[in-house]
Amino acid sequence: MGHDRTIRGAARPGAADAVTTDRNWTAQVRSAVLCALGLLVLVVLLDLVSGTLTALRCALWWGLAALLYVVLHPARVTTGPGWLAVQGLGRRRHVCTGLLTAVRYSGGVAARLVLCDSLGNRVELDPRILLADPLLLHRLDRGARAAREAGLLRTGYAELRRLTEQVDGAAARGVFEASGLR
Asked: What pLDDT sits at residue 9?
C-alpha cells in the first residue's frame, strides 16, 4: 500500500512542471469571432435592406467573415519546463528554451520576437503576449538564462532582458500606485 502512494506521488506533476498557457487567448479568440460575426451581420443586413441578397452573395459574405476570422485568430502560446510552443490555426511550432541560440526582436507596427534553438526549431510570436502574461515570460527567461550559461545563447539576450525589465517596471509601478507612494 505504501508502494502505491509512492507511485502516485511520483506520477503527479508538481507546480514547477505545470504547463502554462496565455491567459488572454480565450478573450482574443472571442473578439475575433465577434468581429467576424459583426461583419457578417452588417453586410447581410445591408444587402437585405438594399434588396440584393442572393444565395451567392450570402455565401460570399460568409466566406469574407471566415477570412476575417482566420486573419484575426490569435496564436496560442504555451510553456512548460524547458519549452515554449506557439500554435496557430494550421500548425504548432516549439523551441527548447534551454537550448536557445538566438533571440531576435523586430519592432515596428507588428513587433515580432523570433526564438531559435540548437535543434533547428524556430518560433515567432508577438512580444505583447509575453508582456501581458509575466508567467510565460518568466518561463522563457529561465530557459534563456540556462542557455546563456551553457554558452548556447549568444545573440539577443539583451532583447529578452529588456522585455523582462519592462514587466518588472510595470509591476513595480503598480505596487507603488496601489500603496499610494506615487
From this structure: 34
- Domains of the chain: total: 2
Helix (H) or strand (E) holding 123: strand 122-125
Same domain for 161 and 128, yes or no, is yes
Regarding beta strands 76-80 and 83-87, do their DSSP bridges make them parallel or antiparallel, or are they unpaired? antiparallel
pLDDT digits (tens, 9 = 90+) for 128-173: 898 888 888 889 989 999 999 999 988 888 888 888 887 766 655 6
Regarding beta strands 20-21 and 76-80, do their DSSP bridges make them parallel or antiparallel, or are they unpaired? antiparallel
How far apart are the C-alpha atoms of 74 and 25, rounded to whole Å? 7
Which domain-ending residue is among 72, 90, 114?
A: 72
The backbone torsions φ and ψ at residue 86, rounded to the nearest 5 degrees and listed phi first, read: -125, 125
- Name the nearest CA neighbour of 72 among 37, 114, 113, 109: 37
* One-letter amino acid of 19: V
